[in-house]
Structures are given as C-alpha cells and as structure tokens.
Amino acid sequence: MPIAHIVLFGDTHLGFDLPCRPRVERRARGEDFFANYQRVVDYALATRPAAVLHGGDVFHRSRVHHSVVERAFEALAEVAAAGIPVLIVPGNHDRSRLPPSLWLGHQNIHVFDRPRTVVIETSGGRLAFGGFPFAWGDLRASFADIVERSGVMSVDAGACFLCMHHTVAGASVGPIGYTFRAGRDVIPRAALPPSLTAVLSGHIHRHQVLTGNHPPVFYPGSIERTSFAERDEPKGFLDLTVTTSAERAAVTGAQFVELPARTMIDLPVPPEVECSDVGAFLTRSAAALPPDAVIRIDAGARSAELGEALGAAQLRAALPPTMSVQWHRGRFRAD
To answer: Do residue 255 and residue 290 come from a single domain?
Structure first.
C-alpha cells in the first residue's frame, strides 16, 4: 500500500508577547513560540513529508510587525524551497487573511485565502487538500456550501482532506475538559462529508483526535501554552501517516511530536505578607521554582494593591530574569 506523511501544526500565535522595541529588560515569551515554530520547520526539512499544513492562527494578531511576518514566512519558504508543499489556513486571529509577503509567492506555498483545493502528486498517489479561511457567522448554515465551493469532493485523488480552523462538536478544551456540543460556530459531526479521508484543523489548542461514525478530525493543538488554561497540556504537532489503496485511503498513524513548553505556576501570596515584604517573599518563593517558569501571582483581592505598591521595576528585580510573570486575572502587565 502506498504511504505518504503529512506534518500538521497550527496555532503558532507568532508575535505573542514579542515587543519589537522593548522598553524594559524582561523575558518576553514570544521567542518561545518562534523557537518551537522553528523546531517544526527543522523536523519537516529532516523528514521530508509529502506536505506541511499550518492549521491557522499563524499570528497572534491580524496586525503584527513586518519583522515578525517576514521571519515567519521566510522559515516556511525554506521548507517550500526544499520541494515540500506548504499549505496555510488563515485563522480567526489572522482575521481570515495573511499579511502580504514576497515569501508567500513561492510556487510551493499555497494559502487557503478562499475555498479551494490543492492537489499534490506523491509517490503514494494524489493527495487533495480542500480548505478555506476561518469563516465568520453561522457556520452551521454555511458549512456545506463552503465545502462544496472548495471543490475537494469532486477531485479524483487517492486521499481527500478538509483543512480548516474551526471547532467540531466533541472537541474539548480547558482544565475541566469543557466539550463543545452545539453552537453557531460549532460544526456537527454529521455535517462532515463521509467520503473525506480526514479533517485537519487548527483552532483548538489541546491536541486531540475525534473519532467515531464520521471522518476523523485531527487537532495538533498549539505549539506553546498561550494561557494558564493550558498549563497542564502537552504541546507539539502531528506527523500523520496516510495509506492509500484502491478501496479507501486512511490515516493509519498519528504521531504526536511533543515540543518543549514553559512550566506555568500559580504563586499565591498569603494574606499575612505585607506590601513592604512582597518583593522579598517573591524572591524566596522563586528560588524553589524552575528558573524558566511562567509565574502568575495571585493575591486575591489584594492584587491591585500589591501591584501598585511593588511596581514593575521592583517586581522584575524580585524574580530571576529567566522567568516570566503576570498578576492573576491580568491585573498587572510587566511591559
């Protein structure tokens, strides 16, 4: 049986906590995201899959500094220049479109800037990737039409994939495992065309695979933790093995390749700690924690008071420069 491999990653959120002209010296988390992004690129260059698919939310915001844009797309252009097709789904954080870049003009880079299908010839047969940018509004009403307009269901190929950046019913998120059941932006499983080989999607930050009486849905998850709601989730990407035959193509292997992720720790401030002593308390507490941890200081109702008393400079001085810090519920910004 002919076999092909696909590297699937997404929700890279480049530009997250990455000031281009930092006003103070502190450890910004943005380089952690770029480091894992480059690890995926290096993996693709080493393993040479049939295709690399980015499932959306390339950037954390729709408007990012041009240096972030160029750095992101230059890395993908390196993959494309190696003869490996790169496919990109613009996500909701991208506002359904990617910022312009000359790197995107490479013949091996394909952006789903509208519903369309890209066919890739491999030694294992033809692979069809139908995709579309993040769709706003009531997706329950428009999903079937979007899939039809992509043309993926009418292509003669050994395997057909739907590439998107959306939530399918049954996906779960958060520390309590909230499961999406219904909603205007939740795609019912019954709406997935049964003839698809698989659905490859971004948007859900927890890695998971939805199976059942429908095409499997693969979520690689985000490449780094973007919030404390993801503190216990492993981060990485997927290497999918696709087996094609005369009867039916199938994803016969889904290796989750884990990436390093910063440890996230809640640091409660006991009520007996006075405002004048909070700096020393943080220094003592940090000594027992991983030096590169992301710290969230929780002083409850006193957070605003302590944040004002301590000050940004004093807070940075109280903790190792290798740590990142924030106040619980975003009451304090270190930048």
So the answer is: no
| pLDDT over 90 percentage in the chain | 79
Tell me: do 18 and 165 sit in the same domain.
yes
The pLDDT-based confidence of 248 (bands split at 50, 70, 90) is confident
Residue type (1 letter), 317: A
Task: Quote the distance between the C-alpha of residue 179 and its chain's center.
Answer: 19
Read off the pTM. 0.93
Same domain, 323 and 233: no
